[in-house]
Specification:
By secondary structure, the chain is an alpha+beta fold. It is built from 3 helices and 7 strands. A hairpin with a 2-residue loop joins β6 and β7.
């Protein structure tokens, strides 16, 4: 399993951060690997809402279906699945002086033949984790 964990502070309030991040479609604005993310259901965004995500990592395009598994007052959990992997993205937001502390935790489980790529993918996702934290910090600071 690949695990990536980043914690950073932003000037936006926890409510603004959670409201923005609740819409997984916004990954197009801050996730360097994401090419497109399209909502696949309708209505308010609640636990059970779904998105089709197309990402490119190491030159390989992959598609996952993401579901908002949990939407708590301080945490969002998104689970993305396809035949080759399951990605669990947990975002925890707490008040901090001048804004919010955001923890972005990714667990990526490769399946089948894709498991062979785990060591290479771990290195790439560590790099992407740093890029994502930087991009997400810049994006969330614009909300504040």
């Amino acid at each position: 399993m690949i695990t990536v964990d980043r914690t950073f502070t932003v000037t936006a309030t926890p409510a603004a951060v959670l409201e923005y991040l609740r819409d997984f479609g916004n990954t197009e604005q801050w996730d360097p690997g994401t090419q497109t993310t399209t909502r696949t259901d309708a209505g308010p965004i609640v636990a059970g809402s779904t998105w089709h995500n197309v990402s490119k990592v190491l030159g390989i395009t992959t598609e996952l279906t993401y579901t908002l598994q949990e939407a708590a007052s301080d945490r969002l959990v998104f689970v993305g699945r396809n035949d080759g992997a399951t990605s669990t993205d947990t975002i925890t937001v707490r008040p901090a002086e001048g804004g919010s502390e955001v923890n972005y935790h990714l667990e990526l489980q490769m399946h089948g033949a894709a498991k062979l790529a785990t060591p290479v993918m771990k290195f790439e996702f560590e790099k992407l984790g740093t890029e994502t934290a930087k991009s997400l910090t810049e994006t969330l600071n614009k909300l504040g």
